[in-house]
Amino acid sequence: MPARQEEEGLTLSERMKRGHSNGYRERSSERPHRPTGARRNLARSMGLAVVVCALLLATTASVPLAAGSVGDPGASPAAPSAPRAPAAAPIALYMVTVIESGLAVGGAYSVVWGIAITGGLSYSSTLGTISVYLANGTYQYTTHSSDDTRSAAPGTFTVRGGSVSVYVAYAPVTSTITFTEEGLPNGTNWTLSVDGSQASSMTDSIVFVESNGSSSFAVMEVPGYQASPAAGSVMVGGSPISQVIVFSRITPGIYRLTFVGSALPSNATWSIVLNGATENVVGSTLGLSEPNGSYSFAILPPPGYTANPTSGTVVVNGSPVPVPIDFSQNSAGRSSGISGFDYFWGAFIVIAIAIAVFAVLWVWTKSRGPPRGF
Fold it and tell me: Is residue 25 part of a domain?
């Protein structure tokens, strides 16, 4: 029977019961309602907007309102904040060039020199200049050198917003030589020669300033007196030196016989043979006290030099006698060529080597025998 007809034959209460039962089953059999894709996107966007608004409100609430702002009409004006200190500007540095003179620099055996500047800065070089960078100010400096015979004075320089050149001049290290006489009457004039320079005094001392090294001296004649030593040499090494010259009266009839050499180095050593007695000389002068008479002499010059005259005779007759000796350096040096003796031995060695090579080849050829196949 069709459902329609069946439903018409039911009573009202039966139809109500059946309708309630069917409606419940239909609703319970349907799936839960889910929003579509567009609705889901809209919901997500609204949620995100809510979160952003909440964050903005929280941030605004945590930031204090400035005095007089719209959000805080009753607030009193805040005190102005202290200005920030500007960042420190970098210190400007300028080039300082130290230029030396007087030293042997830049060669195979260069002198090492340097400069020490205020503040513990120290620099060294084997060239002629040293460059450093310094700020404005005044600096003191001292110098040093591996050549202990030369030195340079300390000094100061100032940097004022630009590059600076500092000139350091090295000069020979000098020391004083004080010659003190004994035996002369007060007020007697006496004279000394040191390395060709003369000085006189009427007091008991004469002072010379000489550079490091050997310096030769000679005492000029004082009538009626003999000096001891009359000549010699002293070694200057950076400290003051004293040399005593003792004068003694000459016995009547004794006169000064002085040999004076020229064109010799200050430390040259040579000899004079006077009447068979040899007198050694350092420097250029030899003074002797001799009685009247005739004296033969011979000159033994330093190596590499020739004397003029080489020998002769001098007569002492009631007065001092100077004897000049002119020295000249030999122009003919040692031969740098190969001597005939060297040529002989060179040829002999070459011939011996050639014979030995020939003998070895001959023996080697014989030991191989005739070629195979013959």
Answer: no
Predicted confidence (pLDDT) per residue in 14-27, tens digit? 655 555 445 444 44
Q: Would residue 53 count as lying in a domain?
A: no
Same domain, 99 and 138: yes
Residue type, 4: R
Q: Which of 216, 249, 282 is the last residue of a domain?
A: 249
Q: How many CB atoms lie within 10 A of CB 7?
A: 13
Antiparallel, parallel or unpaired: β 174-182 and 190-194: unpaired
Q: Is residue 297 part of a domain?
A: yes
CATH number of 125's domain? 2.60.40.10
Q: How many Å apart are CA 10 and CA 18, to the nearest integer? A: 10
Give the integer Cα–Cα distance in Å for 143 and 269: 37
- CA separation, residue 98 to residues 142, 162, 240, 277, 342 (Å): 12, 15, 31, 59, 54
CA distances from 118 to 3, 131, 252, 335 (A): 122, 15, 68, 57
Structural domain contains residue 269: yes
Residue labelled with tokens 């020229």: 262
176, 242 contact by CB (below 8 A): no
For residue 341, the one-letter residue type is F
Diameter of the chain by CA atoms?
196
pTM of the model: 0.41
Which pLDDT tens digit goes with each residue over 233-250? 888 877 898 999 999 888
Report in angstroms the alpha-carbon separations of 130 from 85, 101, 108. Answer: 39, 12, 19
CA–CA distance from 295 to each of 22, 159, 272, 333, 374 (Å)? 174, 73, 12, 34, 97
Distance CA 48, CA 44 (A): 6
- Both 168 and 178 in one domain: the answer is no
